[in-house]
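User: Fold this; C-alpha coordinates only.

Assistant: Input:
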Amino acid sequence: MKKLLIIALFGLSPVYAQTYDEARAGIAAGDDILQYKALQTHALYPYLAERFYRQQLHRDSEIVALFDRYFSAPPIKALHNRWIKDSYQRGNFNQIVRYYYHTGDKAANCLYRDAQLQLGNRQAALENIEQLWLSPRSISSACDTVFTQWSGSTSPTYLLKRARLAYHAGNVAFAERLANKVSGVDAETIRRFAMFYRYPTDLLEVSAESLTATRLARDLLPKALLQLVRKDSSRYAAFAMQFALPMQDNAEYQTVLGQLTGYLANRQDPQTQYAYGLLQNPDKTATRAVIRYLVGARQWQTLAQLINPDSSDTMAQYWLGRALENIGKNPQKAYAKAAKTRSYYGFLAADKLGQAYQLNAESIQPDATVQKNLNHNTVLVRAKLLLQYGEPILARKEILLLAKHMQPYTQQQLAYWLDQNNFSFEAIYVLGKIRKWNDISIRFPTPYNHQVQAANRLTGTPVTWIYAILRQESSMNPRAVSRAKAKGLMQLIPSTARRMADDLQLSLYGDAIFDPSVNTKLGAKYLADMFERFGNIALASAAYNAGPRRVEQWLASNELTDMPLWVEQIPFNETRKYVKRILEYQQVYAHHLGETIPRVSEIMQGRTSDNSG
Protein backbone atom coordinates (compact mmCIF):
# COMPACT_ATOMS: atom_id res chain seq x y z
CA MET A 1 0.00 0.00 0.00
CA LYS A 2 2.74 2.39 0.93
CA LYS A 3 4.02 2.94 -2.58
CA LEU A 4 5.44 6.26 -3.67
CA LEU A 5 2.87 8.75 -4.77
CA ILE A 6 3.40 9.90 -8.36
CA ILE A 7 1.41 12.87 -9.48
CA ALA A 8 1.43 14.52 -12.87
CA LEU A 9 2.67 18.05 -12.36
CA PHE A 10 0.72 20.82 -14.01
CA GLY A 11 1.60 24.42 -14.58
CA LEU A 12 -0.79 26.61 -12.65
CA SER A 13 -2.56 28.25 -15.57
CA PRO A 14 -5.34 30.72 -14.79
CA VAL A 15 -7.99 28.25 -16.05
CA TYR A 16 -6.58 25.43 -13.94
CA ALA A 17 -6.43 27.68 -10.90
CA GLN A 18 -10.00 28.75 -11.46
CA THR A 19 -11.12 25.11 -11.74
CA TYR A 20 -9.52 24.28 -8.42
CA ASP A 21 -11.09 27.36 -6.84
CA GLU A 22 -14.45 26.37 -8.26
CA ALA A 23 -14.08 22.85 -6.87
CA ARG A 24 -13.17 24.15 -3.44
CA ALA A 25 -16.13 26.53 -3.43
CA GLY A 26 -18.45 23.90 -4.92
CA ILE A 27 -17.58 21.30 -2.28
CA ALA A 28 -18.08 23.88 0.46
CA ALA A 29 -21.52 24.54 -1.06
CA GLY A 30 -22.45 20.85 -1.14
CA ASP A 31 -21.26 19.55 -4.51
CA ASP A 32 -20.24 15.90 -4.80
CA ILE A 33 -16.53 15.47 -5.32
CA LEU A 34 -17.16 13.10 -8.21
CA GLN A 35 -18.09 16.16 -10.23
CA TYR A 36 -14.41 17.09 -10.09
CA LYS A 37 -12.74 13.87 -11.24
CA ALA A 38 -10.63 15.89 -13.66
CA LEU A 39 -8.79 17.32 -10.66
CA GLN A 40 -7.59 13.98 -9.29
CA THR A 41 -4.14 14.65 -10.72
CA HIS A 42 -4.01 18.12 -9.21
CA ALA A 43 -1.37 18.33 -6.48
CA LEU A 44 -3.94 19.73 -4.03
CA TYR A 45 -6.58 17.10 -4.69
CA PRO A 46 -5.87 15.47 -1.27
CA TYR A 47 -7.10 18.68 0.37
CA LEU A 48 -10.28 18.70 -1.71
CA ALA A 49 -10.84 15.04 -0.89
CA GLU A 50 -10.36 15.51 2.84
CA ARG A 51 -12.79 18.44 2.93
CA PHE A 52 -15.43 16.38 1.16
CA TYR A 53 -15.04 12.90 2.65
CA ARG A 54 -14.80 13.98 6.27
CA GLN A 55 -18.56 14.53 5.94
CA GLN A 56 -19.01 11.33 3.89
CA LEU A 57 -17.12 8.74 5.92
CA HIS A 58 -19.46 5.92 4.88
CA ARG A 59 -18.19 5.99 1.28
CA ASP A 60 -15.60 3.37 2.12
CA SER A 61 -14.39 2.25 -1.28
CA GLU A 62 -13.71 5.79 -2.46
CA ILE A 63 -11.90 6.66 0.78
CA VAL A 64 -9.62 3.61 0.90
CA ALA A 65 -8.60 4.32 -2.70
CA LEU A 66 -7.24 7.64 -1.43
CA PHE A 67 -5.12 5.86 1.18
CA ASP A 68 -3.34 3.87 -1.51
CA ARG A 69 -2.66 6.85 -3.73
CA TYR A 70 -2.07 9.70 -1.28
CA PHE A 71 -1.17 7.91 1.97
CA SER A 72 1.60 10.34 2.99
CA ALA A 73 -0.33 13.59 2.42
CA PRO A 74 -1.23 15.25 5.76
CA PRO A 75 -4.92 15.77 4.87
CA ILE A 76 -5.29 12.10 3.89
CA LYS A 77 -3.64 11.01 7.14
CA ALA A 78 -6.20 13.13 9.00
CA LEU A 79 -9.01 11.62 6.91
CA HIS A 80 -7.67 8.12 7.58
CA ASN A 81 -7.84 8.71 11.35
CA ARG A 82 -11.42 9.99 11.11
CA TRP A 83 -12.40 7.05 8.94
CA ILE A 84 -10.86 4.49 11.34
CA LYS A 85 -12.90 5.92 14.22
CA ASP A 86 -16.07 5.99 12.15
CA SER A 87 -15.51 2.42 10.90
CA TYR A 88 -14.99 1.23 14.46
CA GLN A 89 -18.31 2.75 15.50
CA ARG A 90 -19.95 0.93 12.58
CA GLY A 91 -18.31 -2.35 13.58
CA ASN A 92 -16.35 -2.71 10.33
CA PHE A 93 -13.41 -4.47 12.00
CA ASN A 94 -12.23 -6.40 8.95
CA GLN A 95 -12.13 -3.16 7.00
CA ILE A 96 -10.04 -1.46 9.69
CA VAL A 97 -7.53 -4.30 9.85
CA ARG A 98 -7.20 -4.35 6.06
CA TYR A 99 -6.75 -0.62 5.44
CA TYR A 100 -5.16 0.77 8.61
CA TYR A 101 -1.69 2.28 8.33
CA HIS A 102 0.37 4.10 10.95
CA THR A 103 -0.10 7.88 10.96
CA GLY A 104 1.16 8.64 14.46
CA ASP A 105 -2.35 8.96 15.90
CA LYS A 106 -2.53 6.86 19.08
CA ALA A 107 -6.31 6.69 19.19
CA ALA A 108 -6.49 5.31 15.64
CA ASN A 109 -3.73 2.83 16.48
CA CYS A 110 -5.64 1.59 19.52
CA LEU A 111 -8.85 1.18 17.52
CA TYR A 112 -6.91 -0.88 15.00
CA ARG A 113 -5.57 -3.04 17.83
CA ASP A 114 -9.08 -3.35 19.27
CA ALA A 115 -10.36 -4.43 15.85
CA GLN A 116 -7.70 -7.15 15.84
CA LEU A 117 -8.96 -8.28 19.25
CA GLN A 118 -12.54 -8.36 17.99
CA LEU A 119 -11.38 -10.64 15.19
CA GLY A 120 -9.53 -12.93 17.59
CA ASN A 121 -6.04 -11.75 16.61
CA ARG A 122 -4.69 -11.19 20.11
CA GLN A 123 -1.02 -11.45 19.17
CA ALA A 124 -1.37 -8.76 16.49
CA ALA A 125 -3.37 -6.57 18.87
CA LEU A 126 -0.65 -6.64 21.53
CA GLU A 127 2.38 -6.33 19.27
CA ASN A 128 4.76 -3.67 20.72
CA ILE A 129 2.04 -2.63 23.17
CA GLU A 130 4.61 -1.83 25.86
CA GLN A 131 6.06 0.98 23.74
CA LEU A 132 2.59 2.50 23.32
CA TRP A 133 1.60 2.13 26.97
CA LEU A 134 4.83 3.53 28.45
CA SER A 135 3.86 7.13 27.84
CA PRO A 136 4.42 9.90 30.39
CA ARG A 137 0.95 11.19 29.64
CA SER A 138 -2.54 9.76 29.67
CA ILE A 139 -3.49 8.08 26.41
CA SER A 140 -6.85 8.16 24.62
CA SER A 141 -9.65 6.15 26.20
CA ALA A 142 -9.80 4.31 22.87
CA CYS A 143 -6.81 2.36 24.18
CA ASP A 144 -8.46 1.17 27.40
CA THR A 145 -9.82 -2.11 26.01
CA VAL A 146 -6.49 -3.13 24.49
CA PHE A 147 -4.52 -2.20 27.60
CA THR A 148 -6.73 -4.37 29.80
CA GLN A 149 -5.68 -7.34 27.66
CA TRP A 150 -2.00 -6.71 28.43
CA SER A 151 -0.79 -7.97 31.78
CA GLY A 152 1.86 -5.27 32.00
CA SER A 153 -0.78 -2.56 32.50
CA THR A 154 -1.39 -3.85 36.04
CA SER A 155 2.18 -4.90 36.78
CA PRO A 156 3.71 -2.93 39.68
CA THR A 157 7.03 -2.85 37.82
CA TYR A 158 5.51 -1.26 34.73
CA LEU A 159 3.23 1.06 36.71
CA LEU A 160 6.18 2.43 38.67
CA LYS A 161 8.28 2.75 35.52
CA ARG A 162 5.54 4.78 33.85
CA ALA A 163 4.97 6.86 37.00
CA ARG A 164 8.66 7.76 37.01
CA LEU A 165 8.46 8.77 33.34
CA ALA A 166 5.43 10.94 34.09
CA TYR A 167 7.17 12.62 37.03
CA HIS A 168 10.24 13.49 34.97
CA ALA A 169 7.98 14.90 32.26
CA GLY A 170 6.42 17.23 34.85
CA ASN A 171 3.10 15.37 34.77
CA VAL A 172 3.03 14.79 38.50
CA ALA A 173 -0.73 14.33 38.83
CA PHE A 174 -0.58 11.40 36.41
CA ALA A 175 2.49 10.05 38.20
CA GLU A 176 0.52 10.08 41.45
CA ARG A 177 -2.45 8.28 39.89
CA LEU A 178 -0.19 5.54 38.64
CA ALA A 179 1.65 5.26 41.98
CA ASN A 180 -1.66 5.01 43.80
CA LYS A 181 -2.28 1.71 42.04
CA VAL A 182 0.78 0.19 43.68
CA SER A 183 1.76 -0.41 47.28
CA GLY A 184 5.25 -0.39 48.72
CA VAL A 185 8.15 1.95 49.38
CA ASP A 186 8.80 2.98 45.77
CA ALA A 187 5.17 3.96 45.20
CA GLU A 188 5.20 6.00 48.39
CA THR A 189 8.45 7.70 47.30
CA ILE A 190 6.89 8.77 43.99
CA ARG A 191 3.79 10.11 45.76
CA ARG A 192 5.99 11.95 48.24
CA PHE A 193 8.12 13.63 45.57
CA ALA A 194 5.07 14.51 43.52
CA MET A 195 3.97 16.50 46.56
CA PHE A 196 7.42 18.12 46.82
CA TYR A 197 7.20 19.05 43.15
CA ARG A 198 3.90 20.86 43.82
CA TYR A 199 4.97 22.37 47.14
CA PRO A 200 8.77 22.54 46.95
CA THR A 201 9.24 24.47 50.19
CA ASP A 202 8.09 21.29 51.99
CA LEU A 203 11.55 19.94 51.14
CA LEU A 204 12.95 22.26 53.80
CA GLU A 205 11.23 20.23 56.53
CA VAL A 206 12.98 16.99 55.52
CA SER A 207 16.54 15.94 56.25
CA ALA A 208 19.06 15.63 53.45
CA GLU A 209 19.66 12.02 54.46
CA SER A 210 16.00 11.16 54.01
CA LEU A 211 15.80 12.91 50.65
CA THR A 212 18.74 10.89 49.30
CA ALA A 213 18.14 7.61 51.15
CA THR A 214 17.27 5.49 48.12
CA ARG A 215 18.25 5.33 44.48
CA LEU A 216 14.72 6.32 43.46
CA ALA A 217 14.72 9.31 45.84
CA ARG A 218 18.01 10.52 44.36
CA ASP A 219 16.53 10.11 40.89
CA LEU A 220 13.45 12.21 41.74
CA LEU A 221 15.06 14.88 43.95
CA PRO A 222 16.56 17.13 41.21
CA LYS A 223 13.16 17.96 39.68
CA ALA A 224 11.82 19.04 43.07
CA LEU A 225 14.96 21.07 43.81
CA LEU A 226 14.62 22.87 40.49
CA GLN A 227 11.07 23.85 41.44
CA LEU A 228 12.40 25.15 44.75
CA VAL A 229 15.20 27.33 43.34
CA ARG A 230 12.86 28.70 40.68
CA LYS A 231 10.77 30.14 43.51
CA ASP A 232 13.72 32.07 44.97
CA SER A 233 17.21 31.12 43.85
CA SER A 234 19.02 33.27 46.41
CA ARG A 235 16.98 32.10 49.36
CA TYR A 236 17.12 28.38 48.58
CA ALA A 237 20.51 28.06 46.91
CA ALA A 238 22.27 26.80 50.03
CA PHE A 239 19.63 24.12 50.56
CA ALA A 240 19.95 22.92 46.97
CA MET A 241 23.75 22.96 46.99
CA GLN A 242 24.08 20.79 50.11
CA PHE A 243 23.43 17.72 47.96
CA ALA A 244 26.52 18.21 45.79
CA LEU A 245 28.46 15.34 47.38
CA PRO A 246 25.78 12.61 47.61
CA MET A 247 24.46 13.60 44.14
CA GLN A 248 27.80 14.23 42.42
CA ASP A 249 27.23 11.46 39.87
CA ASN A 250 23.63 12.45 39.15
CA ALA A 251 23.51 14.14 35.73
CA GLU A 252 20.14 15.76 36.39
CA TYR A 253 21.38 17.28 39.65
CA GLN A 254 24.34 18.71 37.75
CA THR A 255 21.81 20.29 35.36
CA VAL A 256 20.04 21.83 38.35
CA LEU A 257 23.33 23.31 39.59
CA GLY A 258 23.95 24.77 36.14
CA GLN A 259 20.51 26.36 36.07
CA LEU A 260 20.96 27.61 39.63
CA THR A 261 24.22 29.26 38.55
CA GLY A 262 22.30 31.12 35.86
CA TYR A 263 19.49 32.18 38.20
CA LEU A 264 21.97 33.51 40.75
CA ALA A 265 24.00 35.34 38.12
CA ASN A 266 20.83 37.10 36.95
CA ARG A 267 20.52 38.47 40.47
CA GLN A 268 24.22 39.29 40.83
CA ASP A 269 24.25 36.97 43.84
CA PRO A 270 27.72 36.10 45.24
CA GLN A 271 26.56 32.49 45.61
CA THR A 272 26.96 32.24 41.82
CA GLN A 273 30.64 31.35 42.13
CA TYR A 274 30.00 28.67 44.72
CA ALA A 275 27.26 27.01 42.64
CA TYR A 276 29.51 27.08 39.60
CA GLY A 277 32.37 25.58 41.59
CA LEU A 278 30.23 22.55 42.47
CA LEU A 279 29.74 21.60 38.83
CA GLN A 280 31.70 18.53 37.76
CA ASN A 281 31.95 19.60 34.12
CA PRO A 282 30.57 23.13 33.64
CA ASP A 283 28.95 23.62 30.26
CA LYS A 284 29.05 26.74 28.12
CA THR A 285 25.80 28.12 29.56
CA ALA A 286 26.95 27.84 33.17
CA THR A 287 30.35 29.31 32.33
CA ARG A 288 28.73 32.24 30.59
CA ALA A 289 26.57 32.77 33.68
CA VAL A 290 29.53 32.99 36.03
CA ILE A 291 31.30 35.31 33.58
CA ARG A 292 28.27 37.59 33.69
CA TYR A 293 28.40 37.60 37.48
CA LEU A 294 32.12 38.39 37.58
CA VAL A 295 31.70 41.13 34.97
CA GLY A 296 28.91 42.70 36.99
CA ALA A 297 31.03 42.47 40.14
CA ARG A 298 34.05 43.93 38.29
CA GLN A 299 36.16 41.03 39.53
CA TRP A 300 38.61 41.35 36.65
CA GLN A 301 41.44 39.38 38.20
CA THR A 302 39.20 36.42 38.98
CA LEU A 303 37.71 36.64 35.51
CA ALA A 304 41.12 36.58 33.85
CA GLN A 305 42.04 33.49 35.88
CA LEU A 306 38.76 31.72 35.15
CA ILE A 307 38.68 31.97 31.36
CA ASN A 308 40.75 29.53 29.37
CA PRO A 309 42.76 31.52 26.79
CA ASP A 310 42.10 28.69 24.32
CA SER A 311 38.34 28.83 24.75
CA SER A 312 36.38 28.89 21.50
CA ASP A 313 33.55 30.89 23.10
CA THR A 314 33.54 34.44 21.74
CA MET A 315 31.86 35.81 24.86
CA ALA A 316 34.63 34.35 27.01
CA GLN A 317 37.34 35.75 24.72
CA TYR A 318 35.82 39.23 24.61
CA TRP A 319 35.49 39.45 28.39
CA LEU A 320 38.93 37.93 28.84
CA GLY A 321 40.21 40.83 26.75
CA ARG A 322 38.28 43.32 28.88
CA ALA A 323 39.59 41.69 32.08
CA LEU A 324 43.19 41.74 30.88
CA GLU A 325 42.78 45.37 29.85
CA ASN A 326 41.47 46.26 33.30
CA ILE A 327 44.38 44.58 35.13
CA GLY A 328 46.98 46.19 32.88
CA LYS A 329 47.80 43.20 30.67
CA ASN A 330 47.77 42.88 26.88
CA PRO A 331 44.26 42.00 25.62
CA GLN A 332 45.09 41.86 21.91
CA LYS A 333 45.25 38.07 21.56
CA ALA A 334 41.86 37.55 23.23
CA TYR A 335 40.21 40.30 21.19
CA ALA A 336 41.77 38.96 17.98
CA LYS A 337 40.38 35.49 18.63
CA ALA A 338 36.88 36.82 19.34
CA ALA A 339 36.97 39.18 16.35
CA LYS A 340 37.18 36.26 13.93
CA THR A 341 33.52 35.47 14.47
CA ARG A 342 30.27 36.96 13.23
CA SER A 343 28.62 37.74 16.53
CA TYR A 344 27.80 40.49 18.96
CA TYR A 345 31.00 39.76 20.89
CA GLY A 346 33.02 39.35 17.71
CA PHE A 347 31.91 42.78 16.56
CA LEU A 348 32.68 44.37 19.94
CA ALA A 349 36.13 42.79 19.86
CA ALA A 350 36.70 44.05 16.30
CA ASP A 351 35.76 47.52 17.52
CA LYS A 352 38.42 47.26 20.21
CA LEU A 353 40.99 46.41 17.53
CA GLY A 354 39.68 48.85 14.93
CA GLN A 355 39.20 45.98 12.48
CA ALA A 356 36.55 45.24 9.88
CA TYR A 357 33.79 42.86 10.91
CA GLN A 358 34.18 39.23 9.84
CA LEU A 359 30.86 37.98 8.42
CA ASN A 360 32.23 34.52 7.51
CA ALA A 361 29.64 34.00 4.80
CA GLU A 362 29.53 30.52 3.25
CA SER A 363 26.79 30.20 0.68
CA ILE A 364 25.18 26.84 -0.01
CA GLN A 365 26.06 25.79 -3.54
CA PRO A 366 23.02 24.42 -5.37
CA ASP A 367 23.30 20.80 -6.52
CA ALA A 368 21.61 20.74 -9.93
CA THR A 369 20.41 17.16 -9.59
CA VAL A 370 19.00 17.64 -6.10
CA GLN A 371 17.39 20.94 -7.05
CA LYS A 372 15.72 19.28 -10.04
CA ASN A 373 14.38 16.54 -7.77
CA LEU A 374 13.09 19.11 -5.31
CA ASN A 375 11.33 20.98 -8.11
CA HIS A 376 9.45 17.79 -8.89
CA ASN A 377 8.87 16.69 -5.31
CA THR A 378 5.16 16.15 -4.72
CA VAL A 379 5.22 17.70 -1.25
CA LEU A 380 6.95 20.84 -2.45
CA VAL A 381 4.62 21.17 -5.41
CA ARG A 382 1.72 21.03 -2.94
CA ALA A 383 3.42 23.57 -0.70
CA LYS A 384 3.91 26.06 -3.53
CA LEU A 385 0.27 25.76 -4.53
CA LEU A 386 -0.92 26.06 -0.94
CA LEU A 387 1.06 29.28 -0.62
CA GLN A 388 -0.52 30.63 -3.80
CA TYR A 389 -3.97 29.73 -2.51
CA GLY A 390 -3.42 31.58 0.77
CA GLU A 391 -2.71 28.56 3.00
CA PRO A 392 0.82 29.27 4.33
CA ILE A 393 0.30 27.28 7.54
CA LEU A 394 -0.63 24.13 5.61
CA ALA A 395 2.31 24.72 3.29
CA ARG A 396 4.65 25.00 6.27
CA LYS A 397 3.35 21.78 7.79
CA GLU A 398 4.04 19.92 4.54
CA ILE A 399 7.56 21.34 4.24
CA LEU A 400 8.67 20.72 7.82
CA LEU A 401 7.39 17.14 7.77
CA LEU A 402 9.37 16.55 4.59
CA ALA A 403 12.53 18.15 6.02
CA LYS A 404 12.34 16.03 9.16
CA HIS A 405 13.08 12.86 7.21
CA MET A 406 15.92 14.20 5.04
CA GLN A 407 19.65 13.79 5.47
CA PRO A 408 21.63 16.97 6.36
CA TYR A 409 23.03 17.48 2.85
CA THR A 410 19.55 17.28 1.33
CA GLN A 411 18.24 19.58 4.05
CA GLN A 412 20.83 22.17 3.03
CA GLN A 413 19.69 21.87 -0.56
CA LEU A 414 16.08 22.12 0.60
CA ALA A 415 16.90 25.36 2.45
CA TYR A 416 18.37 26.77 -0.76
CA TRP A 417 15.24 25.71 -2.69
CA LEU A 418 12.95 27.22 -0.07
CA ASP A 419 14.80 30.52 -0.16
CA GLN A 420 14.54 30.63 -3.94
CA ASN A 421 10.80 29.96 -3.73
CA ASN A 422 9.89 32.62 -1.13
CA PHE A 423 9.67 30.33 1.88
CA SER A 424 11.91 32.50 4.08
CA PHE A 425 10.70 31.28 7.46
CA GLU A 426 10.96 27.63 6.49
CA ALA A 427 14.47 28.10 5.03
CA ILE A 428 15.65 29.77 8.24
CA TYR A 429 14.06 26.99 10.31
CA VAL A 430 15.67 24.18 8.31
CA LEU A 431 19.16 25.71 8.51
CA GLY A 432 18.72 26.29 12.23
CA LYS A 433 17.79 22.65 12.80
CA ILE A 434 20.99 21.42 11.15
CA ARG A 435 23.05 24.23 12.71
CA LYS A 436 24.21 25.58 9.36
CA TRP A 437 24.91 29.14 10.44
CA ASN A 438 27.01 30.73 7.72
CA ASP A 439 24.75 31.08 4.70
CA ILE A 440 23.77 34.58 5.77
CA SER A 441 21.88 35.32 2.55
CA ILE A 442 19.39 32.57 3.44
CA ARG A 443 19.44 33.03 7.21
CA PHE A 444 18.99 36.81 6.93
CA PRO A 445 16.66 37.35 3.97
CA THR A 446 15.11 40.67 2.94
CA PRO A 447 11.51 40.00 1.98
CA TYR A 448 8.84 42.69 2.47
CA ASN A 449 11.31 45.31 1.29
CA HIS A 450 8.58 47.62 -0.01
CA GLN A 451 6.76 47.49 3.33
CA VAL A 452 9.95 48.00 5.35
CA GLN A 453 10.98 50.98 3.25
CA ALA A 454 7.50 52.50 3.64
CA ALA A 455 7.69 52.02 7.43
CA ASN A 456 11.09 53.71 7.42
CA ARG A 457 9.78 56.71 5.48
CA LEU A 458 6.78 57.04 7.78
CA THR A 459 8.57 56.73 11.13
CA GLY A 460 12.26 57.41 10.49
CA THR A 461 13.22 54.06 12.02
CA PRO A 462 16.36 52.69 10.30
CA VAL A 463 15.71 49.93 7.78
CA THR A 464 18.50 47.79 9.22
CA TRP A 465 16.93 47.98 12.67
CA ILE A 466 13.47 47.09 11.35
CA TYR A 467 14.88 44.07 9.52
CA ALA A 468 16.83 42.96 12.59
CA ILE A 469 13.61 43.06 14.61
CA LEU A 470 11.69 41.16 11.91
CA ARG A 471 14.34 38.47 11.83
CA GLN A 472 14.49 38.06 15.59
CA GLU A 473 10.78 38.39 16.31
CA SER A 474 9.18 36.20 13.65
CA SER A 475 11.88 34.92 11.28
CA MET A 476 9.83 36.60 8.53
CA ASN A 477 6.58 34.76 9.36
CA PRO A 478 3.73 37.28 8.87
CA ARG A 479 1.21 34.96 10.61
CA ALA A 480 3.33 34.39 13.73
CA VAL A 481 1.50 34.41 17.08
CA SER A 482 3.45 34.04 20.33
CA ARG A 483 2.32 32.52 23.63
CA ALA A 484 1.85 36.10 24.85
CA LYS A 485 -0.46 36.72 21.84
CA ALA A 486 2.01 39.01 20.09
CA LYS A 487 1.18 38.97 16.39
CA GLY A 488 2.66 39.38 12.95
CA LEU A 489 6.09 40.08 11.55
CA MET A 490 7.11 42.40 14.37
CA GLN A 491 5.21 40.52 17.09
CA LEU A 492 3.00 43.28 18.41
CA ILE A 493 0.75 42.91 21.43
CA PRO A 494 -2.75 43.98 20.22
CA SER A 495 -3.02 46.78 22.79
CA THR A 496 0.31 48.24 21.66
CA ALA A 497 -0.72 47.86 18.02
CA ARG A 498 -3.93 49.80 18.69
CA ARG A 499 -2.02 52.65 20.33
CA MET A 500 0.41 52.89 17.44
CA ALA A 501 -2.46 52.72 14.92
CA ASP A 502 -4.17 55.62 16.68
CA ASP A 503 -0.95 57.64 16.62
CA LEU A 504 -0.48 56.98 12.90
CA GLN A 505 -4.20 57.32 12.13
CA LEU A 506 -4.26 53.85 10.62
CA SER A 507 -7.25 51.55 10.67
CA LEU A 508 -6.60 48.30 12.55
CA TYR A 509 -9.58 46.29 11.38
CA GLY A 510 -10.05 42.50 11.49
CA ASP A 511 -6.78 40.73 10.82
CA ALA A 512 -4.96 43.86 9.68
CA ILE A 513 -2.32 43.31 12.36
CA PHE A 514 -1.08 40.39 10.24
CA ASP A 515 -0.81 42.53 7.10
CA PRO A 516 2.94 43.15 6.57
CA SER A 517 2.32 46.70 5.33
CA VAL A 518 0.39 47.52 8.53
CA ASN A 519 2.44 45.49 10.99
CA THR A 520 5.77 46.97 9.89
CA LYS A 521 4.46 50.53 10.20
CA LEU A 522 3.10 49.89 13.69
CA GLY A 523 6.25 48.08 14.84
CA ALA A 524 8.52 50.77 13.38
CA LYS A 525 6.46 53.43 15.15
CA TYR A 526 6.87 51.64 18.47
CA LEU A 527 10.63 51.35 17.87
CA ALA A 528 10.76 55.08 17.09
CA ASP A 529 8.88 55.81 20.33
CA MET A 530 11.27 53.67 22.34
CA PHE A 531 14.28 55.31 20.73
CA GLU A 532 12.89 58.76 21.51
CA ARG A 533 12.39 57.65 25.11
CA PHE A 534 15.82 56.06 25.66
CA GLY A 535 18.03 57.61 22.95
CA ASN A 536 19.80 54.33 22.29
CA ILE A 537 19.03 51.39 19.98
CA ALA A 538 20.24 48.83 22.54
CA LEU A 539 17.99 50.22 25.28
CA ALA A 540 15.10 50.75 22.88
CA SER A 541 15.40 47.13 21.69
CA ALA A 542 15.36 45.94 25.29
CA ALA A 543 12.20 48.01 25.84
CA TYR A 544 10.62 46.58 22.68
CA ASN A 545 11.13 43.09 24.11
CA ALA A 546 10.57 43.52 27.85
CA GLY A 547 8.67 46.80 28.08
CA PRO A 548 9.92 50.33 28.86
CA ARG A 549 9.11 50.20 32.57
CA ARG A 550 11.42 47.26 33.12
CA VAL A 551 14.22 48.99 31.26
CA GLU A 552 13.77 52.03 33.48
CA GLN A 553 13.98 49.78 36.55
CA TRP A 554 17.20 48.21 35.25
CA LEU A 555 18.65 51.62 34.54
CA ALA A 556 17.91 52.63 38.10
CA SER A 557 19.65 49.50 39.43
CA ASN A 558 22.75 49.53 37.23
CA GLU A 559 24.64 52.59 36.05
CA LEU A 560 25.06 53.08 32.34
CA THR A 561 28.75 54.02 32.22
CA ASP A 562 29.69 50.84 30.36
CA MET A 563 27.01 49.67 27.94
CA PRO A 564 28.32 46.14 27.20
CA LEU A 565 28.60 45.58 30.95
CA TRP A 566 25.07 46.89 31.47
CA VAL A 567 23.71 44.46 28.85
CA GLU A 568 25.30 41.54 30.72
CA GLN A 569 23.35 42.58 33.82
CA ILE A 570 19.93 42.44 32.17
CA PRO A 571 18.23 39.93 34.50
CA PHE A 572 15.98 38.39 31.82
CA ASN A 573 17.75 35.76 29.73
CA GLU A 574 15.44 36.35 26.78
CA THR A 575 15.92 40.14 26.74
CA ARG A 576 19.67 39.93 27.20
CA LYS A 577 20.00 37.57 24.22
CA TYR A 578 17.51 39.66 22.27
CA VAL A 579 19.54 42.87 22.56
CA LYS A 580 22.74 41.13 21.50
CA ARG A 581 21.08 39.55 18.50
CA ILE A 582 19.49 42.78 17.34
CA LEU A 583 22.85 44.55 17.42
CA GLU A 584 24.48 41.67 15.54
CA TYR A 585 21.66 41.26 13.00
CA GLN A 586 21.61 44.98 12.27
CA GLN A 587 25.20 44.77 11.03
CA VAL A 588 24.41 41.75 8.85
CA TYR A 589 21.49 43.59 7.26
CA ALA A 590 23.64 46.66 6.70
CA HIS A 591 25.98 44.41 4.72
CA HIS A 592 23.10 42.89 2.72
CA LEU A 593 21.57 46.26 1.91
CA GLY A 594 24.82 48.05 1.19
CA GLU A 595 24.16 50.50 4.02
CA THR A 596 26.80 52.24 6.10
CA ILE A 597 25.77 52.34 9.75
CA PRO A 598 27.70 53.02 12.96
CA ARG A 599 29.62 50.15 14.50
CA VAL A 600 28.15 48.17 17.37
CA SER A 601 30.10 50.04 20.05
CA GLU A 602 28.97 53.37 18.61
CA ILE A 603 25.33 52.25 18.42
CA MET A 604 25.51 51.16 22.05
CA GLN A 605 26.67 54.64 22.99
CA GLY A 606 23.61 56.18 21.35
CA ARG A 607 24.71 56.85 17.78
CA THR A 608 22.32 55.78 15.04
CA SER A 609 22.24 55.93 11.29
CA ASP A 610 20.12 58.28 9.26
CA ASN A 611 16.59 57.39 8.20
CA SER A 612 17.67 55.53 5.09
CA GLY A 613 18.96 52.59 7.00
